[in-house]
Every structure is written in structure tokens, then in C-alpha cells.
């Protein structure tokens, strides 16, 4: 089987070999990160950059190893802080106090998902500062999306300058 060259905004002409793991959903190719997943919970993400396991991010792996668990999503601290609607609601009020009101047209589950991502980053890296972003593990993103679902997802974006 011949190599496939992908040309779209995500891959920028990456050439894939038949043995590479990728799939096509609609007109978008997605890298299947399961071959790089060590925890068993990662789902395919739209970009290779987002397809990273909790075992492959040092700060996350350290927190995971402290509890002797296979995936950070199994950590009690993750479930309590990032998936519990009541805890997220409290963080939401803190967010409102610091950032100001949000658009009333944004569904609450999308806002809660965004807050859950922020809470995870705070839990792992403590304080990143404005415009400092980190890619979250695919297993974490998948679990938060499962808890606070939506029809569309934005994915990781670098801050605007």
C-alpha cells in the first residue's frame, strides 16, 4: 500500500505510511494516539499535538505516580475537582469574579467544561499565568468532554498575541 499525504490546516502535508495509525472522520483526518497511549484511556484527538497521554507529560505523570494508578483520570483528586458539577460551579463563580460576566448565549455545560480544563491545569501546574497554556492529556480532555458534552469542540489553541 502506498503512502498517503494529508493536506489540510492540521497536518500541513504530513506524509503517512500504511503502518501509521490514522482515521478519517468526514473530511478531517485524525491521528489515532492509541499507539502512544500508555494509560488505556486516551481517545483520538484532531491534532497530533493534542494526542498525548498522561504518562507523557512529566507534571501529570508525577501526580499519577503519587497515587500508584494507571491513568490520571483514576485519581480521586481529578474526579472531585474536575468532574464534580458542584465543585465546578464554585470555580465558575470565582471565574466570574475575576473575569467578569460571560455571554448568556454560551451553554452552561460548555462553560463548565472550560472551567474543568482550567481547574485541571491549576491542579497540575499550580499557576501558569495569563496567556500561558499547556496541552492537556487526551484522556483528561476525553473524560471532561464525556462529563460536559457538546456538539462541537474547539480543541487546543495557543493564546493570541
Helix-strand blueprint:
Elements: E1 4-5, E2 15-16, E3 22-25, E4 28-31, H1 58-66, H2 76-83, H3 85-99, H4 108-125, H5 138-147
Antiparallel strand pairs: 1-2, 3-4
Kindly describe this structure:
There is one protein chain. It is globular, with a radius of gyration of 17 Å. The relative contact order is 0.14. It has 161 residues and is mainly alpha-helical. Helix 3 packs across helix 4 (108-125) and helix 4 runs antiparallel to helix 5. Residues 1-21, 23-27 and 31-35 have low confidence and may be disordered. The chain contains 5 helices and 4 strands.
Describe the structure in brief.
By secondary structure, the protein is mainly alpha-helical. It has helices at residues 58-66, 76-83, 85-99, 108-125, 138-147; strands spanning 4-5, 15-16, 22-25, 28-31.
